[in-house]
What we know:
Structural class: alpha/beta
Distance between the termini: 51 Å
Shape: globular
Largest sheet: 6 strands, mixed
Number of helices: 12
Strand order of the largest sheet: 1-2-4-3-5-6
Amino acid sequence: MSQQPFPPSALRGAVDLSALARPKAPARGQGPTPGGTPATGTPTAGAPGQGPVVIGTDESFQEIVNASLRYPVVVVLWSARLPESGDFVKIMGGLASASEGRFQLVSVDVDTNPGLQQALQVKQVPVTIALLQGRPVPLFIGPLLPQEAQPILDELLQLAVQNGVTGRAPVADHPPEGEAEGPETVAEPELPPLIARAYDAIDAGDLDGAVEAYEQALEDTPGDAEAKVGLAQVRLMKRTEGVDAVAARAAAEASPTEVAAQVLVADLDVLGGHVSDAFGRLVDLVRVTSGDERNAAREHLLQLFEIVGPTDEVTAARRALMSALF
């Protein structure tokens, strides 16, 4: 068995994760799905942060996206109608457990989550993608053997470190009250209090609270890179929260030189993972505007560079921006 190439078209449009509804509360009552191993047990339904393997649903997926700001998330989309795809979730569950929290596995049955299947435009299962800082990273299509999947996961974890995503997913549920933790329970590394408060606020859907926590962290420590990037990410989420993506794109098409319309679509593209589209849009805007409007477009593009981090797309877009400016 060998890794199949991941065609760019496989996730075209997939990645507009912001189109998925934010849940009012974690989903409950989901039945068991593949992914349980002796080390992990049955995956926890509905919400991140409860173990190395969790169940993803249409309702809970925004929480999972938020969790990827703290630690890498690997999503396997499978179908109960295809036993081989379910068996592969079990394989990935074992790798997630063995990673001791370096990434969290999310199992998504596309048959019972049509919103995710449509948003991700999944045509074949199993499909494996990762989420880093809210952005999707295509990994591979089809089931792999553990020894084939592990090197790809290792590359993902290296990419996560390069982008400052160094948190750990919980490796075990908390023991019942009054019981001591077992010797194999591994605690998450302690976070600075304000960063921890920001993460908790993001998980609760309280973006204003996350902004406040990050701003306080920067006031206390102006050079805190994690707080600076986190604040930019949360502000991006706030700017796009509740936005009608179809209407926004129509407005941008109707007004190609209107800065507000163009930057909103660029924000949607970055949140959805189409970073090259977002950068190209704003570089083109810099070319056709002048004065304060041109400066606003340039400044917004620089903010997006900060959010995306050091990638080939950012390097190429910086060159394009310099060309547009001079």
